[in-house]
Amino acid sequence: MQPVFVLLALGFMALLLQSQWDELQNYTWRIDLRWLATSAGAIVAAWSVEIVIWRWLLRTVGSQLPYLPAARIWFLSAIVRYIPGNIWQPLSITILSERRGVKPEATLVSVVLYQIITILAVAPIAAAYFAMTGNWGVLTELLAGAAPGLIALTLAPVIIFIVRPSLLIELVNWALHRMGRPRLPIGLSRMTLIALMAIAIADWLIWGIAFCSLAFGINEYAPWQLWALAPHLIVIYPVAYAVGFISFLTPSGLGVREGALYLLLAPLIGGGGVTVLALAMRVWTMLGELLAAGVSTLFPDRTPETPDSPPIVEPLQDAEAAPEHKLSEGLSAGG
Can you tell me the distance from the alpha carbon of 11 to that of 211, in angstroms, rounded to the nearest whole number? Predict the structure, then answer.
């Protein structure tokens, strides 16, 4: 079914472009190739960091993949996330990884942990931005009084998992048990979680730089405007991306991410400019994903399957860890 998924993904991507074509075609473009090259380079760098994070988590759950095969799997799976349902990219990664001898449970857990950690990494970025700037976009006046509570609520999940990182593994193993899959003998120490989140924060800032560079590549700004807008553009893009991801309403946060960008950036660069920039970033990223997937297909994976390696079971302090059966009992008792 893999070719079918790819064709479906290409079809949905074409429909997306067609639905937004008039808006993009009627815009007066001012192209600066230097900024566009910077944006493209930042996207490639961000993808490279993402693969590093995923391979680290894959090793943690007892499997491993060389970097280039992992990159091939990553890029071939990226385009299928445009199929509605939000499950096709993890499914594709799982299928392609299994061909190299990686257990489906290990791949699934690594992808789930990757998504949780990377989304959690947006929280400190968002909290610092809103606390320092007070800019909530078009909702600034409405949310001014609730800002401290919203910032605290944003940071709460991060604090919980840093205090007790084993909770992530307990929840994942509980889910595996409910699905009839064996639990994975893995541990996630506080230092490892902090390190992964730090790398994820750096990755998000690189994505912000890509977004900011694209904005400067399709619009003409004075030097003082570049300096004034750059911090907002770099930080707001990860926040909007996370909002689109956790919405689970549309494939790849389609429409929700763009709406979040509009809400946060409209007072800064105008509604029309935000709309075109949000659509341009979507198209720019899609073109990069198509190119990366196309290059990946030119280099078929002929490496023999490699067996799973022993998992990295990190020692957990008593204060951090709790037996899995206690979690299961507690959930059962709670209905």
Answer: 25
